[in-house]
Specification:
Blueprint lengths: L2 E6 L4 H12 L3 E7 L8 H4 L9 E2 L2 H7 L4 E4 L3 H13 L3 E4 L6 H14 L3 E3 L5 H13 L5 E8 L9 H11 L22 E3 L2 E7 L5 E9 L2 E9 L6 H11 L5 E3 L8 H10 L1
Parallel strand pairs: 1-2, 1-4, 2-3, 4-5, 5-6, 6-12, 7-9
Antiparallel strand pairs: 7-10, 8-9, 10-11
Helix pairs in contact: 4-5, 6-7
Bound molecules: NADP nicotinamide-adenine-dinucleotide phosphate.
The site of NADP nicotinamide-adenine-dinucleotide phosphate has 22 residues, from helix 1.
């Protein structure tokens, strides 16, 4: 049986790549799009690369009332994604939010809504499985290497710094890293910002250049050794495996899960599951 999906943000870079992925997945079916500029048109009217005969709505309530769907996938901007997701959950449609930058209050509201309506929801600010593993490995390494700095590099159209992934990495590292003062106690900057941003004594350096997509290095320093954990998203296809995983996983959820790391299962567990079938 196909999983019927509604995508918000079909003209965006992520939305367009997601529609390509949905087209190529035998069990996925695109059934509608939410797009503020093309209400009443069909996707084939506005897209040469995705000439699909699916309806476009600009209003989420109208869309979720009219179209039978299993999943709503949001790839827009935080304020809009939050509004769309609220409406989807109220209409009992499982929701996957790839849009990054939702506030804690918005996440808390959606958590309550998903729980009250017993509808699955996954918020995944980073769908790149490699990036999620990088954060988990960094959390593990920080127990042994409390001296750590982060360099994150993104395309020059990104407006916020540091990236959400860098902030999340610091959060995860802080769960295991013994609190300490690192670097020289008397260090000072001769050029302001030279030592980067700082959370709990962990420096974060943000690079913004054309040609980059999304890259991060977590560098640990110890006695006579360094350890670098590095991840590169080379294009938007890097996000599609995690997106597929989230879509499959949300089908059996009745609550909200924040972060792809909370749905990645150990391979051993997966193998046991396969053996059990
Ligand atoms: P993009 O190319 O700028 O696309 C954004 C989409 O949102 C466009 O379709 C845009 O339509 C729509 N939009 C913007 N403002 C809107 C509004 N006020 N009302 C309705 N629609 C609006 O951005 P992108 O690179 O595809 O990224 C989309 C989202 O995914 C961002 O939040 C980004 O941070 C996030 N992202 C997540 C991951 C992940 O792994 N989870 C990876 C990359 C990016 P208009 O043309 O009408 O403005």
């Amino acid at each position: 049986m196909s999983i019927r999906i509604i995508v918000a943000g079909p003209r965006g870079r992520m939305g367009s790549t997601a529609i390509e992925m949905i087209k190529n997945e035998p069990n996925f079916q695109l059934v509608a799009c939410l797009d503020r500029k093309n209400n009443g048109k069909r996707l084939k009217d506005i897209s040469d690369i995705h000439p699909l005969d699916v309806p476009i709505f600009d209003h989420p309530d109208e869309c979720f009332k009219t179209v039978q769907a299993d999943i709503f996938l949001d790839l827009t901007i935080p304020e809009v994604g939050y509004r769309h997701a609220k409406s989807a959950l109220q209409h009992h449609i499982r929701t996957v939010i790839g849009t990054s930058g939702l506030t804690n209050d918005q996440i808390n509201d959606l958590t309550k809504l998903a729980r009250n309506h017993r509808v699955g929801c996954i918020i995944a600010p980073n769908f790149a499985i490699g990036a999620v593993l990088m954060m988990q490995f960094a959390k593990f390494a920080a127990q042994y290497f409390p001296n750590v700095e982060i360099i994150e590099k993104h395309h020059d159209q990104k407006v916020d710094a540091p990236s959400g992934t860098a902030l999340k990495t610091v959060d995860m590292i802080r769960e295991t890293r013994e609190k300490m003062q690192q670097g020289h106690p008397d260090e000072y900057e001769t050029v302001s910002g030279a030592r980067g941003g700082n959370i709990d004594g962990i420096p974060i350096h943000s690079v913004r250049l054309p040609g980059l997509v999304a890259h991060q290095q977590v560098i640990f320093g110890g006695n006579g050794q360094t350890l670098t954990i590095s991840h590169d998203s080379l294009n938007r296809h890097s996000f599609m495996d995690g997106m597929k995983l989230a879509i499959h996983h949300v089908m059996s959820l009745r609550e909200l899960i924040y972060g792809l790391e909370n749905i990645l299962e150990p391979i051993e567990h997966n193998q046991n599951k396969k053996r059990a079938h």
